[in-house]
């Protein structure tokens, strides 16, 4: 939308030799004169040659399309018109003085130029549409259509195409001679056209990238049509004069008939031969375009096109221009389109060309290889989430029970055997008069194909996320050792562990750190201690003790992260990893240029003087001992005083030791006749601890008494694991080879309250209470970790400690 | 990788899972355990629904985006994990 700066030539300034009947400088007037002049055109003979084409006026047709002003001499138009007519008859143009003012041709047509269609003459006329309007009325001669074309070309040609009189005359002269000149002219025309178009193109390309400054100025008023009024208001000032004129005219008309002043006369006019001209053009293809501009669509384009001149307000308008595209690429394409519209300059042509270019500029969305999709990170993540959701669907009732939420019945599920079970339970509960018996309900089990056949040796909850469980798999016995396995299970996926670590030898001990919750310490059968970072996906341990000089040489039976409040020998407070192993050492590990340990205690063999009274013992005494140290099997630090700990050995002794004194035991408790598998302090009573061993018994001790307060024996099987319940002070669970037992000392001190036998052929090896719910986990020798829920367990909480102490007190009292 | 294959296989063998479909952005199935006509039908319909759901979510808050879609019906549950380049569909009968 360029504004043409139109300047009107002061004709009189230049050529005062010509009598101009047409005033200059007012375009308005020429419009009035158009019709008379067209008549003048027809009456070619009467033509007053207005043409004065002096040499000075000649200017070469500037074929370059620079939008400079071009001379639109109103009068020159008329002159030219008449000149159009005259060449039909004469070649020379003479003015009043007889001077030869024949215009020389401005432009020499190039015969070698490509011939183009005649239609192009009019079709390629793009400029000055306003002028063509009133010219069309004037051009009634069509024999020189090409001429007219030439004139339009030269007249309206964009840029400083001005018509030199000589050039016109020359071209005209050339034309008239032979019809072929028409072709020439057209050639010339086409030439001009071609050149013009070329130049136009150049501009287009350059201008695409440029910032074009457009100045909008107010142009002079162009008056295109002026139809003066034929009636005047009665009130106006002219009314009087008009009335007078009217009356005079009527007088005149009256007087005309029979008046000698007026004589009728007839004339004959030449009517121009008309010719129809047809133009054929290519059909304008129309395309419907529409789009839906969504909230997010605009947001996307705003975000991605955010450098500089983005105007959101124009966005919404321009979004409607964009095309509708195939649905798949819809969002991206519309975004691109709106982007192009936003970022393009305001030149319509360039923006439209841009929109056409866009489909090619869009970065080719290469179809990702299906294999690439399958291996992408996002796909794995999606699979992971999907699996958890599927399992949630499957395990929802069980998980809800675990969390002690009411289970929701699926209303659409087929009510198969459910009603029967319910009725039975109702019956059974109705039968009993007292409260329903405590029972175990098996919820689910953590197992997968990797773990079948492996012996569960230890289990540990994560300290920060109580839903993460680490399970270590390794054989206890020396024979059939195979590479161990550590699996981290999440409650959300009971069918596949989140992390799998394979270790060189069987895993015998596990513990999660409390300070850095993703550190997992693993003790193995060959004495190696390794720590894993469960957050990372790496399969290798963070650190390994296999290079350590003082590493354990026998299976590590227990590892524990202990938080020392009091600094020992100037070392920093914090967590330390303590381990006990069958080589008789309790070591504390720390990181100093690699993993290194110091011995907290060496478990020396103590002579069981009290029990060795038989004859056979004497022989034993004289036997050479393999090692002076007793294999340590378990230990437990005091819950409140982290300096004191208990260690159990294979001989059956429990030693109370202190961290600050590593030469001798503080106390020794002897009662068990076989290796001690587990010692654990009561979380509620700080003086009481439990121990279990392979001599089929579980013993309850008090710190200050050297004989156990209570002993529990239920079957003649070695008890592998015992653990206090974290919720009830009088409850503990024990696992022996054939069954799992829950003891409630408040209910009975002779028999376990709940007994759950193991499946045949499977030995139960470890036990773990869940901290926040009433669930117990039992690991067995087949690699399964079963989760059981304690139901109808009504041991109250508050009075528990008191109850336990009462029990102990009463027992002691009865003993004395 | 092998992990992906394993996970896919595990999903397919879980209790109640009727079918698993992975289609690319054009609706061509990459992996499927159902027959072709069913797969194509599921893919086409779910693609449109996912588009609509995503449009809804983003219209409300353009910074948000759809991550998962679950349709629970009387008989099954259809779970769709949409992405720019693919779509993962699993049909499960949860109450089997």
Can you summarize this structure?
Chain A: One of its GO terms (molecular function) is dynein light chain binding. The complex is a heterodimer of chains A (816) and B (96). Chain A is of the alpha+beta class and 816 residues long.
Radius of gyration of chain A: 55 Å
> What is the helix fraction of residues of chain A, given as a range?
25-40%
- Number of distinct beta strands of chain B: 5
Order of helices and strands of chain B: HEEHEEE
- Return the CATH topology of the domain at 440-566 and 574-606 and 627-814 in chain A: Methylamine Dehydrogenase, Chain H
Mean pLDDT of chain B: 90
Regions with little confidence, pLDDT below 50 for 5+ residues of chain B:
none
Counted by DSSP, the helix tally of chain B is 2
Taking the alpha carbons of the first and last residues of chain B, their distance comes to: 31 Å
Question: Based on the structure, what is the oligomeric state of the protein chains?
Answer: heterodimer
Distance separating the two termini of chain A: 115 Å
Characterize the overall form of chain B. globular
| Beta-strand proportion of chain A | 15-25%
Written description of the protein model:
The complex is a heterodimer of chains A (816) and B (96). Helices cover 29% and strands 20% of the residues of chain A. By secondary structure, chain A is α+β, with helices and mostly antiparallel strands. Chain A has a domain at 440-566 and 574-606 and 627-814: YVTN repeat-like/Quinoprotein amine dehydrogenase (Methylamine Dehydrogenase, Chain H, 7 Propeller), CATH 2.130.10.10. In chain A, the strands form 7 sheets. A 4-stranded antiparallel sheet of chain A has the order 1-28-27-26, covered by helices on one side. Chain A has a 4-stranded antiparallel sheet with strand order 2-3-4-5, with no helix packed on it. The longest helix of chain A is centred in the N-terminal third of the chain and has 31 residues, at 179-209. The radius of gyration of chain A is 55 Å and the shape is elongated. In chain A, 35% of the residues are buried. By secondary structure, chain B is an alpha+beta fold. Helix content of chain B is 39%, strand content 30%. Chain B contains 2 helices and 5 strands, in the order H-E-E-H-E-E-E. Chain B has helices at residues 2-13, 36-60; strands at 17-24, 29-32, 69-72, 77-82, 86-92. Chain B has a 5-stranded antiparallel sheet with strand order 2-1-5-4-3, with helices on both faces. In chain B, strand 1 (17-24) and strand 2 (29-32) form a beta hairpin. The termini of chain B are far apart. The mean pLDDT of chain B is 90. Chain A: WD repeats lie at residues 669-701. Chain A: This is Dynein axonemal intermediate chain 4. Chain A: Pfam families: WD40 (PF00400).
């Amino acid at each position: 939308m360029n504004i043409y700066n139109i300047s009107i030539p002061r004709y009189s300034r230049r050529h005062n030799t010509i009598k101009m009947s047409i005033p200059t400088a007012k375009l308005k007037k020429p419009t009035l004169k158009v019709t008379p002049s067209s008549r003048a055109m027809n009456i070619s003979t009467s033509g007053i040659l207005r043409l004065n084409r002096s040499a000075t006026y000649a200017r070469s047709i500037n074929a370059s399309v620079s939008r400079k002003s071009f001379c639109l001499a109103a009068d020159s138009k008329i002159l030219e018109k008449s000149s159009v007519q005259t060449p039909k008859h004469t070649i020379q143009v003479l003015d009043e003085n007889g001077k030869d003012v024949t215009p020389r041709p401005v432009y020499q047509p190039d015969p070698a130029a490509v011939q183009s269609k005649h239609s192009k003459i009019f079709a390629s006329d793009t400029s000055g549409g306003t002028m063509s309007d009133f010219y069309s009325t004037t051009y009634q001669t069509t024999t020189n259509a090409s001429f007219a074309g030439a004139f339009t070309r030269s007249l309206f040609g964009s840029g400083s195409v001005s018509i030199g009189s000589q050039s016109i005359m020359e071209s005209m002269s050339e034309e008239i001679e032979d019809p072929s000149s028409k072709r020439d002219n057209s050639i010339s025309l086409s030439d001009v056209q071609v050149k013009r178009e070329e130049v136009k193109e150049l501009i287009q390309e350059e201008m695409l990238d440029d910032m074009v400054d457009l100045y909008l100025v107010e142009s002079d008023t162009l008056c295109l049509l002026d139809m003066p009024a034929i009636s005047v208001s009665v009130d106006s000032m002219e009314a009087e004069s008009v009335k007078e004129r009217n009356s005079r005219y009527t007088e005149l008309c009256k007087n005309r008939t029979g008046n000698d002043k007026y004589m009728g006369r007839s004339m004959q006019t030449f009517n121009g031969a008309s010719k129809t001209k047809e133009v054929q053009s290519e059909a304008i293809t129309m395309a419907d375009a529409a789009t839906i501009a969504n909230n997010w669509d605009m947001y996307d384009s705003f975000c991605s096109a955010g450098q500089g001149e983005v105007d959101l307000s124009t966005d919404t308008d321009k979004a409607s221009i964009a095309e509708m595209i195939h649905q798949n690429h819809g969002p991206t394409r519309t975004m691109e389109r709106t982007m192009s519209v936003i970022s393009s300059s305001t030149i319509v042509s360039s923006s439209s060309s841009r929109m056409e270019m866009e489909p090619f500029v869009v970065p080719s969305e290469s179809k990702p290889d299906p294999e690439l999709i399958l291996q992408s990170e996002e796909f794995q993540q999606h699979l992971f989430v999907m699996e958890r959701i599927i399992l949630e669907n499957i395990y929802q009732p069980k998980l809800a029970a675990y969390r002690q939420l009411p289970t929701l019945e699926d209303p659409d599920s087929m009510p198969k055997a459910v009603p029967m079970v319910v009725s039975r339970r109702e019956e059974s509960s109705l039968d009993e008069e007292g409260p329903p018996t405590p029972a175990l309900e098996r919820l689910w089990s953590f197992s997968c194909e990797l773990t079948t056949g492996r012996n569960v040796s230890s289990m540990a909850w994560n300290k920060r996320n109580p839903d993460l469980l680490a399970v270590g798999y390794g054989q206890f016995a020396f024979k059939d050792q195979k590479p161990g396995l550590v699996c981290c299970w999440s409650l959300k996926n009971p069918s596949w562990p989140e992390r799998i670590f394979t270790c060189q030898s069987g895993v015998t001990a596990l513990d999660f750190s409390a300070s850095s919750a993703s550190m997992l310490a693993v003790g193995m059968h060959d004495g190696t201690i390794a720590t894993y970072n469960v957050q990372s996906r790496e399969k290798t341990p963070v650190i390994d003790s296999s290079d350590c000089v003082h590493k354990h040489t026998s299976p590590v039976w227990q590892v524990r992260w202990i938080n020392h409040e009091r600094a020992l020998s100037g070392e920093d407070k914090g967590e330390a990893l303590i381990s006990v192993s069958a080589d008789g050492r309790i070591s504390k590990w720390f990181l100093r240029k690699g993993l290194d340990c110091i011995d907290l205690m060496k478990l020396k063999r103590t002579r069981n003087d009290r029990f060795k009274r038989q004859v056979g013992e004497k022989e034993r005494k004289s036997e050479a001992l393999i090692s002076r140290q007793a294999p340590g099997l378990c230990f437990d630090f005091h819950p409140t005083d982290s300096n004191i700990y208990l260690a159990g050995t294979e001989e059956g002794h429990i030693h109370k030791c202190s961290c600050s004194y590593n030469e001798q035991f503080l106390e020794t408790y002897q009662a068990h006749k076989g290796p001690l598998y587990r010692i654990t302090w009561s979380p509620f009573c700080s003086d009481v601890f439990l121990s279990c061993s392979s001599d089929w018994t579980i013993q309850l001790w008090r710190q200050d008494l050297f004989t156990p307060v209570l002993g529990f024996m239920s079957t003649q099987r070695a008890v592998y694991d015992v653990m206090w319940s974290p919720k009830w002070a009088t409850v503990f669970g024990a696992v022996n080879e054939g069954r799992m037992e829950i003891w409630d000392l408040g209910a009975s001190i002779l028999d376990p309250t709940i007994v759950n036998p193991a499946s045949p052929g499977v030995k139960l090896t470890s036990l773990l209470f869940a901290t926040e719910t009433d669930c117990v986990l039992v690991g067995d020798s087949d690699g399964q970790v079963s989760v059981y829920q304690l139901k109808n367990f009504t041991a109250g909480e508050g009075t528990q400690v008191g109850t336990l102490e009462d029990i102990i007190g009463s027992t002691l009292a009865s003993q004395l | 990788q092998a992990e992906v294959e394993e996970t896919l296989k595990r999903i397919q063998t879980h209790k109640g899972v009727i079918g698993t479909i992975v289609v690319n952005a054009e609706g061509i199935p990459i992996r499927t355990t159902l027959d072709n006509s069913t797969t194509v039908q599921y893919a086409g319909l779910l693609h449109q629904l996912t588009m609509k759901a995503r449009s809804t979510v983003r219209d409300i808050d353009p910074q948000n985006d759809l991550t998962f879609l679950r349709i629970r019906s009387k008989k099954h549950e259809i779970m769709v994990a949409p992405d720019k380049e693919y779509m993962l569909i699993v049909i499960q009968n949860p109450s089997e």
